[in-house]
Each structure stands twice: as structure tokens, then as C-alpha cells.
Amino acid sequence: MTGTIRHVGAPPPAERVLLIGAHPDDPEFFCAGTVARWVAAGTAVHYVVVTSGDKGQPPEWPGDRPFGELREAEQLAAARLLGVQGVTFLRLPDGEVFDTLALRAQLTAEIRRFRPDLVLTHDPLTRLYRQHPDHRAVGAAALAAAFPASQLATFFPEQRAAGLQPHRVRTVLLFGSDRPDTFVDIAPVLERKLAALRCHESQASAFPGGMEQRVRTRAREAGAPAGLEFAEAFLWVDLE
Ligand SMILES: [Zn+2]
Fold first, then answer.
1. Which of 94, 137, 162, 220 is the most exposed place for a label (fewest CB within 10 A)?
2. pLDDT of residue 28
3. pTM given for the model
């Protein structure tokens, strides 16, 4: 696919990055290389994971054991491996996420709490139609929270009483986009991305033919438009 290229190379400079994903493993699948490079550059990265992926369980999983707990543990291990500062789980039911006012309020609170200059989330309007519906819903709610809700005191004014002040996000990078314009070179950290993805052991069956091969192929395809061997690709959104 050809399109505009806005940025190629290292991740765009940022002091604080908030990654808002739908399920455990979305942060690593879409962004682990970029996150690893940010952490190496001294950027503070925090995750918000909206569901705990409780519907992705294998058929043999015992019914009396909550699957979401295992997925949260896997997510925490992957985040720790990458040097992410922390993970907030909102624990909405997997597969049942909508872009509601309640979710926008929760994400606005997370933005006002962590005060990122850059937010990473799913592209809610991607035309890659084979897409988990939670991805679209989370992307839409996260964008609505980043602009304009988090910056205006008139949105969710009750949060001020809880000590959360309005906050202005400078940039959003959307992942899973069908028209990316920002290409982060992940060749130096590809092994780290694979190691982080291996923490999500319960999802191994989601990669027929092997996770490593799929990740390498995806990273190669993502980098091709920008002349990179391996990349993660994003659509850049300016909010100011
Ligand atoms: Zn997902």
C-alpha cells in the first residue's frame, strides 16, 4: 500500500506514553518493539487493558478457574519484561465492549491520572474488517477520551473532586491501521518483542504455524512501505 509517510525510524520523542488496549497481548502484538525502544530512551510507559481476555480460553480450561486471572498474570509478565511502569486492568467483559459514556469516563480518568503526552490505541476506523469488535470500541472510546474529554474540565467534572485535573494529550498513535504513516524501526528489538509475546503462553494456539513466523512476517510487511526490514506501523493523529 502506498501513502503518506510522516515519520520513520525511532519512536517519536515522548516523556510519558499511555497505551490503551482491548485485551492482554494487544500491547505486545501491536507495539512491543516501539515500547521497548521508548523504555530504552527513558520514556515512562503505562498500559490500560480494558478487558482481561476471559473469552480466549482453550476448550480444556477448567470451568471453575477464572481465565482472566491467568491472562492478567501473562500481561504483567510481558509488561515487566519490557520495562513498562505498570498495568491498569479495567476488567470489562471480553467481547462485550462498546464505546459508551462510562468507558469514555474511565479512560478519561486514566489519562488525567497518568498525564501522558502521547496515547497509543487501536484504530477504530480501520478497514481491515477481520477485526475484533472490542478493538474498534476501545479505539473509539480512547480517542474520545484523549480529545476533547480529558482536556476540558466540563467533561466528567466529578473527577476533579477526586483530584484529577484536566490534561492535554499532544499526539495519538493508532495501531492496527490500514493507512499507517508512522513507521518505527523494530529491527534492534525484534527479539525482545518475541520474548514479550512468549509471556502470553495461553494464546500460543492463536498463532497457527507459530508465533515467531507470524510476527516476523507482519513486521516485514509493516516496514516495506518505509524501506525498513522490520517495523511497527501507526497512524499519527495531532491533537493540538
Ligand atoms: Zn485484542
1. 162
2. 97
3. 0.96
